Fold Class I SAM-dependent methyltransferase.
Amino acid sequence: MSQIVKNYYDDGAEQEWERLSDPYNQVEWMSTLRLMDRYLPDAGHICDIGSGPGRYAMELLQQGYRVTLFDLSANELNIARKNIEELGLQAEAYICEDARNLRVLGAEAYDGALVLGPLYHVLEEAERLEMVKQVHRILKPEGTAIFSYINSWGCLKAGVTEFSETFRDPERIYDYLQEQRFDELRGFTEAYFSVPHRALEEVKRGGFEVISCAGAESFLAGMRTEVTRLYREDRQVYENLVQAASEMSEAPQYREATEHFLIAARKSSI
């Protein structure tokens, strides 16, 4: 990742810790936890690549997994270490490194991997494919990984309420029907937006058998304002919807039109 991306996460480390506590982002959190529970191995060593401040790593450690955290941002890893140690837990390692350099990790060293973020920021296809191949290399036979991509189709839906002024140029609407690369976005940094079929192709080309895929925001995708209102005004309805959305995140009628597209995959022979 570029220095721009590194600076973004170093400067926003605390904000990234808080991000998944946001009422709307809780849908992504719950859906991802559900996929982890369903598709990661029941025990073993997990490499959390793009761990950020360690929210998912903490969940895994509390369940008895061994966990290595791997992230570009030293500030995020420091937050992760602090919060993990406050729980009386211990990670296997904290590795501050660019996810394009997974060669520093041993071959067939991990039972499972999370890749929930790095692929958002790798603009070049060859580099993304190499990253997926390196995830394949570090996994034990039959190891599983969960990959996350930003989905341009879902961002179009979200954009209606979150950045509608962009669409004063009608061509920008149609741009969201395909892959996109951004040097920088309002409120975000350098980014690559995929589309579901391209993301699936990339993971398969990297040597993986796709087990399942999901849309993290499920049927609530693009409804940030309304979901937040329900959180404030009718907590029971909010909780019911978030629970149902996480349970339906793999349903084909919802999964391809969400902001985050998740792929559960198993290592196969290339």
Q: What stands out?
A: DSSP finds twelve helices and nine strands in the chain.
